[in-house]
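Summary for the funding panel

The consortium committed to producing paired sequence-structure records for every protein in the target list. Below we show the first two records in order, beginning with the earlier of the two.
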Amino acid sequence: MMPHENVPNPVWIIDDDRSIRWVFEKALAREGILHRTFGGAQEALDRLPLETPQVVVSDIRMPGTTGLELMQQLKTRLPSTPIIIMTAYSDLESAVAAFQGGAFEYLPKPFDVDHAVGLVRRALDENRKHIELPVNDVEAPEILGQAPAMQEVFRAIGRLSQSHATVLITGESGTGKELVARALHRHSPRSAKSFIAINTAAIPKDLLESELFGHERGAFTGAQTMRRGRFEQAEGGTLFLDEIGDMPPDLQTRLLRVLSDGHYYRVGGHTPLAANVRVIAATHQDLEARVKQGLFREDLYHRLNVIRLRLPALRERREDIPMLARHFLAKSARELGVDGKRLTEAAVQFFAAQDWAGNVRQLENVCHWVTVMAPGQLVDVKDLPPEVRGEGGATGGDGDWRRALEREVSARLARGESDIADPLTRDFETALIQKALQHTGGRRIEAATLLGIGRNTLTRKVQDLKIDTKD
């Protein structure tokens, strides 16, 4: 039954998926929130002359008019109406486009119903106004991820897209800090200007000051000409300072001065230069600990730590590993001009169970190795690099079987399996008994003694576990 025509200001739900509309109808009715549902964007737009929604919840990909197109039209007519964008396509572009278009929140499917209702209540309470910013058509670097931890990163990039604030990106080596910095730049008002990156740990201390601030001719031996530094090159744009935790103390002082008063001098120069630059810094180190150790200036730390964005380690987003592996295999094949390799299901699960100390960078390197070195188009575990399989570069010793067991447990959990203890225990006991019997030539009494169990127990387990004792 349709709501009465005179009921004012309902919440609008727009989705071509009837089940999604049904879930919202039941949930909002239970909460006593007035609502109206639509199967498409045009249907909602046709209703607009008759009714003004308090909040709009819309799918992003629908036949005909998309959720983003709908949002653009609604923001023109109803600039203060909060819009929550839903999508099953968990990618950076959707998040950035949604926030730049003025979305109140970005809700990836599948979602928790209580969480969705909570967002609607927040939107109703706050009725936040947003500034419309056109979607940037420049293609951003690939940042893939459907894990909740990556969704938080995408949301942050979207929210920061209209900001000039200094950002500190933290995370282990190889997690993609520079990719995020580039995305922040490309989706910012500074995108038309330069993005300049410098790894402060990779440049000798004696050269770093000149690299950052430039130098005048004759400033030091060998300075035959004036040189513009990275701050000048990034004028009007973004300067990305990677591995900021390794910056020498004297340069920390100079950087602090630039961030504080917005001016700097070339080495050997006497004329101050204005720095219209957004600084994004990154580190894999614990800066708070380095501050306590006296290795990093506390005042600089607070200047850099205006907005902190933590990137999760790959082991914290294992559900993304299969997708990332497929992406990197396809990318390597394109770059090398060869047919792409495919992973067997066993190899995919093996990948997902690894800890990946080098994170996404290590995974990409392994996929490149596989593209070049693995025989055949279908790649199994045995075709992976020895160091990934735990051979050749492994430490050996008693911990190896435990790590293998841990990987297997992680793989099964990643697949969503439950009640895993019993089958794993059976596999463990089968391996123990088989190897003990092989060692004793099938003599059960001796095998039982070596295992520390009774002969009758061994016999019962051989039967229960259906162990072949013919070998």
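The next record, for a separate protein in the list, is shown here:
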Amino acid sequence: MRIGSTVYKFARSRDLEGTIKTVTIKRDALGDLYVYFSCVVMPQPISRVMTSKSAGFDFGLTTYLTGTDGSEKHAPQPLRKALRTLATANRTLARKRQGSANRARTKQHLARVHKQVANVRHAFHWELAHDLCATYDTIRLETLNLQGMKALWGRKVSDLGFGTFVQTLHHVAAKTGTVVQHISPWFPSTKLCSACHLVNQHITLRDRVWTCVFCGITHDRERNAAININEEGASSSGGDCVRPALSATAVDPRIPRL
């Protein structure tokens, strides 16, 4: 491939489809070159067999995703596992003389570790997105305040990569015909009892299991939130699984109504 006066050789990872419009060459921190093709292609019909399944999912720091059906997805957290290796590489780099060949090699090694961490995280995101889109026709998620979460939990939120996963999920869903819905960030999915639909304002982050003081049902925190997310998403979109209205008799003066 010739761009200007420079000839490039590249390993074609997949067949090119459509009409090539632009070609972009990028160099990463390791010095590796990547060729990106932007192509115009005709939209293809969706060949996936629809499952008629829908589910809501709650994001968590311990369990990455908890589904309405009780399914749990756990993230590998590659940055956490590589912290000791990264610390050693950073200390080694700090001891090297500026401009020396040893410093350049050590800097490349540090970049290689960071690249491995990113690759593991991206592979998990793509695998999970394809798995969800192959299983469900409609996926409902909560809208996260990522900046607020980073202020509270910092590095762990970045390691889990919630925002990147949501972008990946939307990309895969567009190709498979899966619908991804987001509920309002102000909806109290965690504090709302999925049985009697009253809000418990006294739940804290330490409460992984809690009992509703009105109906007496004990809830798993993530599973209850996933059920509420699914029902709220179905209600806002006019689906079949509509959140029932609160009856006039189901009122506890200790807990405010939703």
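Regarding this second record: Helices lie at 78-81, 83-95, 101-135, 146-153, 155-160, 162-176, 221-237. The chain is about 40% helix and 20% strand.
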